[in-house]
Design brief:
One of its GO terms (molecular function) is antiporter activity. The structure is a single chain. The chain is mainly alpha-helical. It folds into two domains: 9-35 and 270-453, no CATH class; 48-264, no CATH class. The protein is built from 17 helices and no strands. It is globular.
Length: 453
Amino acid sequence: MSVQTSPLALGTEKIGKLLIHYSLPAIVAMTASSLYNMMDSIFIGHGVGHLAIAGLAITLPFMNIAAAFGSLVGVGASTLVSMKMGQKDLKSATDILGNVILLNLLIGSLFTLTSLCFLDPILRFFGASDATLPYARDYMKVILWGNIITHVYMGLNEVVRASGYPQKAMLATLFAVVINGVLNALFIFALDMGIQGAALGTITAQFLALCGILFHFFNPKSFIHFQRGIFNMKRKLVFGMLAIGLSPFLMNLCSCMVVILINNGLKNHGGDMAIGAFGIVNRISFLFIMIIMGFNQGMQPIAGYNYGARQLDRVVKILRYTIGCAVGVATTGFLICQFFPRPMIYLFTTKKELIDIAARGLRIVLAFFPAVGFQMVTSSFFQSIGMAKKAIFLSLTRQLLFLIPCLLILPNIFGEIGVWISIPVADVIAFITALFMLIWQLRYFRQLKTTKA
């Protein structure tokens, strides 16, 4: 029996089938995005060397900032497009398409010019040493010159998904991943272009995927498409997009601050090899996190619809299903990384010292990983039922109130190991906070049911 496609199915279809139906495309896209990031590290590790991996890890804050600006426009635009289409306001939805391109061109250009002018001081601030700076600089120069392509590609891909073509958006992401892998192998191993080859492969893959997306919007048969008069900034639409995208923008900025503190802590107490190890650990853990985020994206429309319809039993049921799936994924990641960390790290490097540090770091960072799955679903759940303040609180407090203080205090007491243990300590505190907030919310649901009865 197939899942109904009507929105009304959200209130009637079996919860398990709905979750699979809505989560699967998101999981594929999220996993592809994670593999996209892993490929650069894998090819650089084997084709350039261990110091290049450390140099790549130095650039992670840059990627967080780029993602922050990307989500500021992309997430806001996709949400606004969905709302306008639901209101049958296709003109405004089409105007948003033009404004997305203009905003991304403007923000992407300013970000590129500013970053290129102060590239070396910024990379030093991010934790680069004399040994890793050349690698980080060579990689970021190429990435920054192609930054406008990245911004427009990410923004338009969100609009494709929101305008009723989630499979096309997923295929564009998968296409970019495959092409990136092929080009990385060509540029690094065949043409011996080093770390710049990895960056060029990434930008070229995004450019080709962007061409496919542009073709979609040039097609007049697409639900929203390019038309005359849409490339004018409209204040109301721009402020609407930026207001909606502010939450993920701030979260990505917090992630940037966290990575800067981790890189500098590892640089001061462990050296370049420790930074390279964190880069590997980050890529591996991110794979499991992205799968959990896919389940969260699947949960959101189901929980939101049923909460709006006051079908609280179904709201609680989808929450339980999603928590079960997320904790299952996180537990799988925990078990693999605790008992078999080295085979995963071998994908990135064969240098024994780097493998030893990364294996130890991976075990520590994922020590309480199942709790991370629970905390992520809880935060997403509050967002799904319209409680944005609680969702933002849970998302930001883990980094601002818990992780950043740990990173400022624990390394001064325990040295390098203090940097690594800061992450699971913050995870445990965030889990406890989320647990208490969710228990309180579920009790409130029971009170509502009793009152209604």
